[in-house]
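so im writing up the methods section and need the Cytochrome b/b6 domain-containing protein record in one place, dumping it here so i stop losing it
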Amino acid sequence: MNPTPSSLTVQPAPRVWDAPVRVLHGLSALCFAGAWLTAEVDRLRPLHISLGLCLAALMALRVLWGLVGSPTARFSHFLKGPTAVVKHFTELTQGRLQAHAGHNPAGGWAVVGLIGLSLASAATGWLTWTGGETFEDLHEGVATAALALVGLHLAAVALTSHLSQRNLVASMVHGRAEVPPSEGIPRNHTGLAALILVATVGFVAWGLAPNSPLRAPGANETAETQHHRERGQEPDDEDEDEAPRLMSGAAMPPASPASATAPRSVRHDDDD
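--- predicted struct ---
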């Protein structure tokens, strides 16, 4: 008897990304985007610092997981030599791509570049906060380079997804890809991913607490700027309000000497 369609079970595609890799990827993207958007807002400086420190910790964990994690998460799995990278770009220009369980040869080196620039951005940001404006230009330059590499990475993901007819973004979300079953990973490590997520959210919440040390003025922050930030104001707001008052005061003519020195008349009631 032939099996009916209802009796057939559809096997899901093999899992190629474990939960820690996917959580680290998503959290690091959110931390980088949030840190970039809050960089120039003084009242959000504690959030900016918290996100930067989280980004550094997440990248450090990614390096550790790249050494001892699942097969597809390890650097030894996706870091290839120049020959493999050139072959990948040749296939890319010809519109044919080989399926990879994990990062392709070019994407693997992009991951290393993003990890390195993220760590450098966080380190120079901390030096700017603790050491003053000496490192500010370096911090901005590294962050801009990281943003450029992020843009290039996203463009490459979109192009590769189009040419290979595989949704690489969806694969990073659910962790599965259309590859031979032998190339899948055996464990998902969900508990470790949950621990990373809880620790990240908890650290950001701690950084935003009223008594958090991240609210202390940095080396390049004056007491006046700190006062404005605690009140939820931009430092220039009060200065702009002060200008009309100064102008109105300057427009008032000075009192004449006569009016300034003239005695006031005192009215005395006659006694009956």
